[in-house]
Specification:
single chain; about 425 residues; 5-stranded mixed sheet; 3-stranded antiparallel sheet; 10 strands
């Protein structure tokens, strides 16, 4: 009997040892074949971003010979599905480039990623509190913004000058400018989608409230949604914007506004796009009869309660909550963000750095110049204390109001009905996301 018990005990101990070894093997990277600590770093992008990031990694490994970085990179196609699988399965890379809405999708309560504020050796002194707020969920710093973006207006300066019109700085000046354009020409192009968002910026300036809050609540009252829709109507009726029936035909065949003949030929003399796209529009106009672009930002009004310039990270860096090497991962993240040689190697591959220390390095070496610097400086200096909500970019939210806006722009849905549908639809979508 004792013999049987001893046999069973030894068998159980052997099983536990084997199981432990198997679990250790499945637990992620520990030591590479060279004996170095291995950490994984994932990102997406084009070839130039890949090359620059790989070069920065080589600099890091040279300075930290005891750490091996396994690079995992690709284009954007398929990245969401891949990361969803890895994050859900607990096999996410130690350091990862993420999109803003991933905070909502993968960390709704702030526990989906590592709390960066607890990492030793990570210098975030180059980031303002407002910028760091964009990476927080429920008070936990889930991610740090790499660069920032805001919806802004930019104009074809050549076309304005041709018509003897100054670039408008206020909403009143924008409406006044529209009256001076020839029939069929407009100072600004907007789709119904971006046109409604522009109207929400107007309401944000006027009342100091957001369409959707950072915490995922509908910030507008029904009356404010009604006023935003009415303002969009006024923009069209006063010929600031082309009617949708006309613009759809003008924009057909162009995958982006900067490729559209209507924009390149001055028929639509302004665009509303992310601030980081300013150099793209500048180059497009320069290549089209050497025209000049002027960056505005956001029109203003008297006694406004907010700038209306809600900023979002163009992308962020996050650390896996399951990392077994927080110290080494913090070292890599700190190096990527702050090391002078790494910053110079990465240049503007992820936009003008949100880190003021890195931005200064690139400004002093002549990397950040021209309209890229103008746009970034404007956004940094005028950003609202209310960041763009990560819930705003959730597909369920945009799908709750975008079709309604299309129908309203075409005159198929009344102002009253559109107001109710957007209010109810957004409220329902936000509630469902949180459930």
């Amino acid at each position: 009997m004792k013999k049987n018990r001893m046999f069973l005990l030894l068998s159980l101990m052997s099983l536990l040892v084997v199981s432990g070894a198997l679990l250790a093997g499945c637990g992620g990277s520990n030591k590479s074949s060279s004996g170095k600590t291995e950490i994984r770093f994932s990102w997406w992008g084009g070839d130039s971003r890949h090359t620059a990031t790989l070069n920065a990694i080589k600099l890091f490994e040279k300075e930290n010979p005891d750490i091996k970085v396994k690079a995992e990179y690709s284009g954007f196609d398929g990245i969401v599905e891949k990361m969803t699988t890895q994050i859900a399965g607990g096999t996410a890379p130690d350091l990862m480039q993420i999109n803003y809405d991933w905070l909502v999708n993968y960390s709704p309560d702030g526990t989906g990623f590592y709390d960066l504020s607890t990492l030793k050796g990570l210098d975030l002194s180059g980031f303002s509190d407002d910028l760091l707020e964009t990476g927080k969920v429920d008070g936990k710093l889930n991610a740090v913004p790499v660069s920032i973006n805001a919806a802004t207006l930019m104009f074809n300066k050549t076309e304005f000058e041709k018509n003897g019109i100054e670039i408008p700085k206020t909403w009143d000046e924008l409406f006044a400018a529209a009256k001076k354009f020839p029939d069929g020409n407009y100072p600004l192009y907007e789709s119904p989608y971006t046109g409604f968002l522009l109207a929400t910026k107007y309401i944000q300036q006027k009342y100091g409230v957001q369409f959707i809050t950072k915490d995922g609540e509908l910030g507008f009252s029904k009356d404010q949604i009604n006023e935003a829709l009415s303002f969009y109507n006024k923009l069209v009726e006063d010929k600031v914007l082309p009617p949708v029936e006309e613009s759809v035909g003008e924009m057909s065949g162009a995958s982006t506004v900067n490729e559209s003949p209507a924009f390149l030929e001055g028929k639509y003399a302004g665009v509303d796009d992310w601030s980081t796209q300013a150099p793209v529009y500048e180059l497009a106009l320069k290549n089209a009869d050497n025209q000049e672009l002027e960056f505005l930002g956001m029109p203003t009004m008297d006694n406004m309660k907010d700038t209306g310039l809600s900023v979002k990270p163009a992308m962020l860096f996050a650390v896996s909550k399951n990392t077994k090497h927080p110290e080494e991962t913090a070292k890599l993240l700190n190096f990527i963000l702050n090391d002078e040689e790494a910053v110079k190697e990465l240049k503007l591959e992820r936009g003008v750095p949100a880190n003021s220390k890195a931005a200064k390095i690139l400004e002093e070496d002549g990397t950040t110049t021209g309209i890229a610097k103008i746009a970034n400086d404007y956004v940094t200096e005028n950003m609202s204390p209310m960041p763009l909500s990560p819930y705003f970019e959730a597909s369920k939210v945009s799908e709750s109001w975008s079709p309604v806006m299309d129908s309203f722009a075409y005159g198929e849905t009344s102002l009253k009905d559109a107001t109710t549908q957007i209010y109810d639809g957004v409220t329902k979508a936000l509630k469902e996301i949180k459930e």
